[in-house]
Amino acid sequence: MSDRSGFELDHVAIAAHDISGVLDVLVGTLGVPIIFGGVNFGFRAMQVEAGNLRIELLEPFNVEQNDFLKRFLERNGEGPHHLTFKTPDISGELERVAQAGFHPVGVNIDNDFWKEAFIHPKEAGGTVVQIAQSAFDDMDFDAEAGEYGPGRWWSEPPPPAPARAHLERVVVTTADVDKSLALYRDLLGGEVAERAEGWIELVWPSGGRIRIESSTGEPGIDRLEWTHPSAPEKLIAAGTPFVISPK
């Protein structure tokens, strides 16, 4: 891992008009536990623990305060929304971001509890990249016992599947692999773990992985790849392909 980066891959976010359907798949079919959630300006969110990486589910809420997610769904439909990388020093890292030739947008570092900035999809190869610093990195909620903290807003999901799936990697496609490596490896600190013709896989210290695949198709997050002993080989949840291999 490069000592130039203090980033950790934290989660991948999926946007939906109503998250109940994808939550049913994640809990009822893939057996992953819910961690926590909350309400914000223009959206409400919750997260599930998918192995070495979390998945965040987003749906519009109080859109009169902020309609960014509503507009995203109208423009793009349901599907992957962003990747989040956390750092303990967002101010220092934003200097590196600018030095590397990127132009962060939506910079808000005035809140002591949550600081954030974004790299626009036009600069990040088709995917919103969120850079964040959080005072709540260590969550004390007991997901196994259904203790989600005070921010619960979602309806009760089905009973969890007995076997739990593991999210192996997020697959990002691009026509310019070198440009994607400049972002995910050189700037955000991913270490090359595997490579073969047409793809390179990066890993972060917590184990989260992104595979960069060369493709002439639409750039950005293409699919999530899982392992699970008995789930179907492919599922579509909130416009997001889940490709599943036997564990």
What would you note in describing this structure?
The protein is an alpha+beta fold and 247 residues long. The protein has 2 domains: 8-137, 2,3-Dihydroxybiphenyl 1,2-Dioxygenase, domain 1 (Roll); 166-245, Sandwich (Immunoglobulin-like), CATH 2.60.40.4320. Helices cover 16% and strands 40% of the residues. The chain is built from 4 helices and 15 strands. It has helices at residues 20-29, 68-76, 90-99, 177-187, and strands spanning 8-15, 34-40, 43-49, 54-60, 79-86, 105-108, 114-119, 128-134, 166-174, 191-196, 199-203, 209-214, 220-227, 234-237, 240-245. An 8-stranded mixed β-sheet has the order 2-3-4-1-5-8-7-6. Strands 10-11-12-9-13-15-14 form a 7-stranded mixed β-sheet, covered by helices on one side. The chain is globular and about 50 Å long. The protein starts with 7 loop residues before the first strand and ends with a strand.
Topology overview:
Blueprint: E1 8-15, H1 20-29, E2 34-40, E3 43-49, E4 54-60, H2 68-76, E5 79-86, H3 90-99, E6 105-108, E7 114-119, E8 128-134, E9 166-174, H4 177-187, E10 191-196, E11 199-203, E12 209-214, E13 220-227, E14 234-237, E15 240-245
Parallel strand pairs: 1-4, 5-8, 9-12, 13-15
Antiparallel strand pairs: 1-5, 2-3, 3-4, 6-7, 7-8, 9-13, 10-11, 11-12, 14-15
